[in-house]
Design goal:
This protein is 33% helix and 20% strand. The protein is α/β, with parallel strands linked by helices. The protein has 2 domains: 2-166, Leucine Aminopeptidase, subunit E, domain 1 (3-Layer(aba) Sandwich), CATH 3.40.220.10; 178-498, 3-Layer(aba) Sandwich (Aminopeptidase). Strands 7, 8, 9, 10, 11, 14, 15, 16 and 18 form a 9-stranded mixed β-sheet that branches. A 6-stranded mixed β-sheet has the order 1-6-5-2-4-3, sandwiched between helices. Strands 12-13-17 form a 3-stranded mixed β-sheet. Helix 4 packs parallel to helix 5 (169-193).
Length: 500
Amino acid sequence: MDFKFTQQPLEKIPVDLVFATSFEKEGLRGPDGGIVFDKYLDGNLSRLMQDQNFEGKEGEILCVPTFQKIKPKYVLVAGLGPQKDFSAESIRRLGGRICQEANRLRARSAGGILETGGIKGVPPEARLRAFVEGCGLAAYQFIRFKTKEDKKKKNTLQTVWFYGRGKTARLQKASEEAQAIVGGVELARDLTNLPPNHLTPSVLGRQALALAKKHKNISVTVLGAAEILKQKMGALLAVAQGSATPPAFIHLKYNPSGKPKTKVALIGKGITFDSGGLNIKTREQELMKMDMAGAAAVLGAFDALARVQPKVAVEGFIPAAENMPAGNAYRPSDILTTRSGKTVEIVNTDAEGRLALADALDFACESKPTYMIDMATLTGGTAYAVGELVTSVLGNDKRLTARLLAAGKKAGEPAWELPIVQDYKKGYLKGPADLKNSGSGTKASTISGALFLEEFVQNNKWVHMDIASTAWADEPTSYHPMVGATGTPVRTLIYFLMDL
């Protein structure tokens, strides 16, 4: 999709539709062209709003044909909700709704007026970035396995025009940044939506290598089973040993221009299918292709990083494996030696993600990062703690955690900090090894999972993001048009890195 700028009045441009907005119970607005469009339509726009009880609630859409009174075929009025609740997220959702409505109308082009001033403290650049994100994300489709092309289901919207006065360089930059973020999210969604027979650990490695080929400022190394063994990643190898598909360990580097003062390590869990191992899952195995959503988020973030180009060094670390039951699978009561040298007794083979991450976190420590952020579909308990719309965040550094939470709010990916309660760690310390892979004596599974990971971050500033409930959407939203992978937390990561 293309986003372009024009200084020609929208009513004179032959686009398929133009859009205006209305705050709840405030009627048409002047700055975004609603009042002007209404005049061209002889007051029919405001009349229809009244006749159809259009109040401007968030999500409301009114579509009015122009009958050739102006060049555009339709005028859309979209509700923004109460003005007191307005934020960049309001515009992001607006962009998603405009995109979906345009595709419903089979429109190929759309246009809107970009107001020059701030609205409730949100400047034009931030509003434009949010709109482009919402519009781009709402256009996402995953139809590669459909054998019959349904033209009615394919998107038609190709171009969105913005009318604005003066210089557009800063606006163009904001638009390009947003499109880069959308591209990263789309990659993460695609990878997470892929079935496990099409996305194995080695295929995930090839996807990473393709990023290095695509972007000159990214380099990638992929380790196979023999090289993983040389690295003494005993935990990752144990998880993988029950599968006929070998594991992979992916190491990415983003190299900014100049000498960066900050380095961030991004670590993503890459279990491409999780059966639970010998502690086999008894339900929803069909969703366990998404157990590599953390890895997908790392790859999506790198795709966006290469285009946004923040002045910060970033390294990515992905332990990729399948967790399968077999005669040679790792067993409950096995004791593993991790890369760090710490030993772990296996209590539950379905707590495999933390094992793979343990080796990845230890490997990442050698890069001497300023900050470490891991993201993983780690525990089902996070859904009970914060629901399916909020990511649980836990860390050992308050300032880092606060910055990541702020980035999530800015990106429209809400997160909530849970406490690291050290008393819960005692459940890991009972037994013949240094640790058990599943704690006992507590229902705080999300917190205890983070406590296990904390054992492998050394003295680094670190945050863990449990995305088990936010990496997958069970119902469509304004800018997530289908059931499936969300791409969380790619946007949070990019906003965080851009603000460092």
